[in-house]
Structure prediction request, 942 residues.
Amino acid sequence: MMITSRKVLMLEAKNFVLGRTVLTGTAFLLIFAAYGFFYGNHLIGQHQKTIHKIPQVQKEHLQEIVEHGSKATVGTTAYYPFFYTSNPPAPWARFAIGQRDVNPYTLKVKMLAIEGQLYDSELNNPLTLLVGNLDTSFIFIFLFPLLIIALLYNVISDEVESGVWKFVRTTTGSIGQTIAGKLLIRYTVVILITLAIFALSVIALQLPLTGPTFQLMLILLPYVLFWLLVGTLVVGMGKSSAFNATTLVCVWIFLAILFPGIANIAVNIAVPVPEAAETALRQREGYHKKWDLPKGPTMEKFYAVYPQYRKYPIAKDKYSPGWYYAMQFSGDLESAHSAVKLFEKLHQRQLFSETIGVFNPVITAQQALNKIANTDLASQVRYLESVRTHHRQIREYFYPFIFENVPTSNIDWAGYPAYKPVGYVAEPLASSVASIAVWNILLAACALFLFKINFIQSKDLQNA
Amino acid sequence: MHFKLIRTIARQEWNSVFRSKTTFVLFFVLLAVSLLAVYTGWQYAGKFNLQQAAASSEVHKQWMSQPNRHPHRVAHYGYLVFREKSPLSFFDFGLDSYVGNSVFLEAHRQNTLNMSEAGFSNGMLRFGELSMAMVLQLLVPLFIIFIGFQTVSGLKENGVLKILLCQRASYMDVLVGKTAGLTAVTWSLFLPLLILGLAAGITLVPGSAAADMAIRIVLIVFSYAVYFLIITLIVVTVSAMSSSAKNALILLVLIWMLFFVVMPKSAQTLGSSLFEAPGKIEFERAIEADVSEAGDSHNPDDPHFANLKARTLKKHGVDSIQALPLNYGALVMQEGENITSAIFNRHFDRLISTYKSQNAVSTAFGFADPFLAIRNISMNLAGTDFDSFTAFQKQTEQFRFEKTKRLNNIHLTQVSFKNNATQRVSAKNFREMPDFIFQPVPIGQNLIASSASLIALLFWAAGGFIVLNIVSSKLKYQ
Prediction:
């Protein structure tokens, strides 16, 4: 008995694997995966190429400025140069581009007030952004469920509809084992395809064999299992192939398109960010008003943070570079509050979407992949913070020369502290994995229950 | 062709679709989603515009209450312009969320449009935004697939088709009748919803030109009607070619995936790899290189500016810039502005045309994917398209240039060269300047932009009937 059932299983497996659906489905996925690899490599490669050019650009730029300012003092020349920063991609960004295409990955700042400079955007074709990336994460998050649907929707109903099922029921000893066998084959095939495409992506995208690569896997496997279980649950209802296909496609559209669309509106309504405009306005006014005010109070604000410059005299009735940079600094001081609030709001948005994600593994998986790849909003905020830090270092490097009225050619213009990119930040993923796992347990329990009442206990199927 | 027969088949199709419970369930789901989309879209656009208008009026107030200042300082004080959403943007968000919402305009510098909604989003936006246009473009086709996949294949399975064909009906009559019936269902369910949604949204938006809006609405409704017809034709064709209803359904769902997920992304990424656009650093470096070649106002030995100086001195018959009746500093500044602005515009136009070439790939794909065609038309007519976004950028740059020019002119005539920096001019001068008013892209230009897509839609509709005719003549599909 055992031997025959194993034989039947092997035969079924062979038939299934060599069937049209598996082969065409896998072929399609492979084509898209190949394109996804190319696209991820291409886009992130471009980012890296641009970032590699920066040191040279920076060097030439500073040289030009210093040459021009050779007759002036540092105070005058320091107005002109830009200092470049960059947000180098983590290796996993090739896998999940996330928000990297939307957000700027290079920003240049002058010694002037920072708030007006932090939100400069990258040059982009908005239609390309709207359409979105066809990267590897998209293939797993969006297209894999469709393959799973195609493989599962007719797992039993096909045989019911062709009349074979009645025969199967009467000849096999355990109907539960037969169903389990059929599902097992499909689960195995899907998981093998997942592993294979993932292995290909590791090679094609040159992902290092370190923690984050395995973390990607740690998200993808439960995610794929989630869709397998969704498929199993629907199949367990014991309806027709057409019903199963329609239902599964509707579930997919709901989870992958409608739900995120509604959730996005919810986020925008729950956490609006008017602070963005407010910050720009305050900074501009905070700085420009100072021109028409007495110099004393402006300088006092500056001295409160930088008391060491109090010893340098500032002319009361005429322009001086020290006063100019103190004015710029006070523009930032006055917009600091709304800038902090803006960043807080962005953080809230992140938290809120994570909460919403608990109800939708598709969102959870997408956010988790972006998190692992450091291509999410939180990573961008970290980058902006690092630009702010660099801006402070630059100011603090040049302040002494400005207050001392040093001639431009007397100082080392490249001697400022080098910009330190953020580096890879590993964030906890336990909650994401747990939330998908809870879904999986619930689905598995429901599916088991449905199979019990619809196939194993019932003697005759209504569709048979 | 038996028109009477076609009408009978169409009526029968209509009745059978409305007899099914699935039709009502699906329709009410779509209805609920559309209403939610229209309401939130309208509310969001309204709130957003209020926010932008408030920020705008604050900037205006600050500008008007400036004290007496040196004009060049005012040129750097600059101006902030906030982009408002178009009146129909609640219907089709288009590119809105991916385009910056404000721009800082100052002398010497062309700043980017900053602070897009996508920049403040953590990626959920990338699954697609829920708008009424999205429901009509993506979900209504799926509705048509679900109510129509068995329209012909079902007849084949239960043998009714053979009986029909044994009577007077030709296969083409059956197919046309089915198409007419399904199209009538879709039109009567969704077109009134579309018209009501648009009309309700418009009446709630104050100050939109009525005639312009009416034409846009009519064209939108017409385009979507053709689009629904095309999808119905595809559904009927596939259903007629399939041996079983199940096969028809699977094939149609696959086509849906291809049209809505795979092709749009492939087309656009193909476009951007075919026509590579420069990154920001590259773009700026190229401009800087051109500027230093054309003449650098900061360089005292620059030949272009040495020439300007000689010409100016000669014209006024004096031998030093101190003796000129105007402020030579301002003259140099304006000359520098002319040069950089012209160079910037040249590079910017080139960038825009690169983007346009990229987008043209998607437009061309409209002949292979009707979704891409309707997406373009819908965005164009809603004023949330690429042209509107480009127009905003061009107009703000024009505004920046003119404002700077006015300020330089004040500088030129009202501030003397001697003790330049310590002088101030009356704030009255600044108050007299016009405010920025965005001129929306006229409907004619929108139509030109969407003409290829419109042709693609008509091509699809005509092609659909031809294919239907071919299918009907093949015996194996009966």
